[in-house]
Write a structure and sequence with these properties.
The chain is built from 23 helices and 13 strands. With about 550 residues, it is of the alpha/beta class. Helix 4 packs across helix 15 and helix 13 packs across helix 14. The relative contact order is 0.14. The mean pLDDT is about 95. It binds glucose-6-phosphate. The site of glucose-6-phosphate (G6Q) has 14 residues, from loops.
């Protein structure tokens, strides 16, 4: 059994949870008019209100004890100093170096990585300028109008989410599309919109061996050649982002048109590397660097601030509090900023691929919850779909409300209703509505028989992260906040958040099954379900 659960810090939290089990947040607010002031924090132009949680000052102190006892400060220092903290892959996890705008030397195996990082950023700048200014011409001499990023997982979700969020900063001539799914329907749809003469494909793959990405890239190249009828066109219409020069060459992309990164950049932490090329070319290099600066500011905050006033630490520990001591199993992410509508999907990977683990760094099975299921959509739409369950369902579901004071749209004046809804939802979740309040509100309209249906238990926790209007800096800070939150939680759970062995088995079995679908193999060795499904597929072909 892992030792985490045996530690005095963990045990103290178990005892404390029992003492708070029946406490109502509405009473905590009534007892302490300063609750918001005590339980909120502003960092990097983001206000974090964590007052609407089932916690007291003692809870936070006990959680901080757990973090300290788990070695958070030591692990944080090791991460920032380039130690090989990703033990199962024997490498550093140094996404913080990619956005280290101070250029403080960061050593990996005794070598400062900053000069290489800066060289790639310069190469990206020159490429982005050429595309944006119409100097990079397609095979027939026309400027680029469409960018298609072909990648999956970390080579897709981050770039797509950020590019979508920063549409206001987009170069007016450029439209960017993201192709990730192996089903050709996605690529087909994109190719039906774009013009081969003015389209640039960015093949984004750390390993350059990912089945989905290479299959899509080959089909895109075939489409291009069908239209332009000249092999040399590939040079003008394909660039690659990878750590693997040889495979890029073999694919037929000129290494001159390759943007490099390094094995110490994890896929889901790679939007800060050249994998962010689709972002940079769409919004311009200066804006991309603003994104990096915002992340760097949050890094510095996380690296230097004491745990008590440290935003990623607090966000992470509050999550641990619910997962491990209140037995919650999901976490909702609810943006009230349409620009961030893809954030829940991005965070699903960041959180669940990082912390969806069942053994500690040393391989000992854990006997407590690790990562919750992360889910959510744009909050306002969610209100008309699943908020019913948040208000009156049977589960305790912590929710993060991510709220922009100003929209990306400068006109129409919808923003007061948006804000009213965001504030009202968190307030309603916290307060609920008891019988007396329900009677007073509904008066004669209340049908006695249905009274239980009209009650709201309340006491549902939420965090609010609020900012003015989303800028590249704020977005950078927000993403870094969640990255470090995930790291803090991984330390409390004693797990390695930087590997992802869980994705291997399915890939391996898919490779084994492919021959059976191509009609080559004997299907006898599979389980009866797989055999039955193969037979059904063959029958319909
Ligand atoms: C992320 C994962 C995974 C990865 C994809 C794509 O942390 O490692 O999502 O990003 O499998 O891998 P490639 O970039 O190598 O194609």
């Amino acid at each position: 059994m892992s030792t985490q659960q045996q530690s005095p810090a963990w045990k103290a939290l178990e005892v404390h949870q029992q003492a708070l089990a029946d406490t109502q947040m509405r009473d905590l607010f009534a007892q302490n008019p300063q609750r918001f002031a005590h339980f909120s924090l502003q960092v990097c132009d983001i206000l974090f209100d964590y007052s609407k949680n089932r916690l007291t000052a003692e809870t936070l102190a006990l959680l901080q004890n757990l973090a300290r006892a788990s070695g958070l400060e030591m692990w944080r220092e090791r991460m920032f100093n380039g130690a090989a903290i990703n033990n199962t892959e024997k490498r550093a996890a140094l996404h913080v170096a990619l956005r280290n705008r101070s250029n403080r030397p960061i050593l990996v195996d005794g070598k400062d990585v900053m000069p290489e990082v800066n060289t790639v950023l310069e190469k990206m700048r020159s490429f982005c300028q050429r595309v944006q200014e119409g100097e990079w011409l397609g095979h027939t001499g026309k400027p680029i109008e469409s960018i298609v990023n072909i990648g999956i997982g970390g080579s897709d979700l981050g770039p797509k989410m950020v590019t979508e969020a920063l549409q206001n900063f987009r170069h007016p001539r450029l439209h960017t599309y993201f192709d990730s799914n192996l089903d050709a329907a996605q690529l087909n749809r994109i190719l039906s919109i774009v013009n081969p003469e003015t389209t640039l494909f960015i093949v984004a793959s750390k390993t350059f061996s990912t089945q989905e990405t290479l299959t899509n890239a080959r089909s895109a190249r075939q489409w291009l050649l069908e239209h332009l009828q000249d092999e040399t066109a590939v040079r003008k219409h394909f660039v690659a982002v990878s750590t693997h020069t040889q495979r890029v060459k073999e694919f037929g992309i000129d290494p001159q048109n390759m943007f490099e990164f390094w094995d110490w950049v994890g896929g889901r932490y790679s939007l800060w590397s050249a994998i962010g090329l689709s972002i940079a070319v769409t919004i311009g290099m200066d804006n991309y660097l603003r994104l990096l600066s915002g992340a760097h500011q949050m890094d510095e905050h996380f690296r230097t601030e004491p745990l008590e006033r440290n935003m990623p630490v607090l966000l992470g520990l509050i999550g641990v509090w619910y997962s491990n001591f209140w037995n919650t199993s999901t976490q909702a992410i609810l943006p009230y900023d349409y620009a961030l509508k893809l954030l829940p999907f991005y965070l699903q990977q960041l959180e669940m691929e990082s912390n969806g683990k069942r053994v500690t760094r040393d391989g000992v099975p854990v006997e407590y919850h690790t990562c919750p299921v992360v889910w959510g959509t744009a909050g306002n739409n969610g209100q008309h779909a699943y908020y019913q369950l948040l208000h009156q369902g049977t589960q305790l579901i912590p929710a993060d409300f991510i709220v922009a004071i100003k929209s990306q749209a400068h006109k129409y004046g919808h923003q007061n209703p948006v804000l009213a809804n965001a504030l009202a939802q968190t307030r309603a979740l916290m307060l609920g509505r008891n019988e007396a309040e329900t009677r007073a509100t509904l008066g004669d309209a209340l049908d006695e028989e249905y009274l239980p249906h009209r009650l709201f238990p309340g006491n549902q926790p939420s965090n609010i992260l609020m900012y003015d209007r989303l800028t590249p800096e704020i977005l950078g800070s927000l993403i870094a906040l969640y990255e470090h939150k995930v790291f803090v939680q991984s330390v409390c759970w004693g797990i390695n958040p930087f590997d992802q062995w869980g994705v291997e088995l399915g890939k391996q079995m898919a490779a084994e099954l492919l021959p059976a679908l191509e009609g080559e193999a004997n299907v006898g060795s599979y389980d009866s379900s797989t055999q039955g499904l193969l037979a059904f597929i063959r029958g319909l072909r």
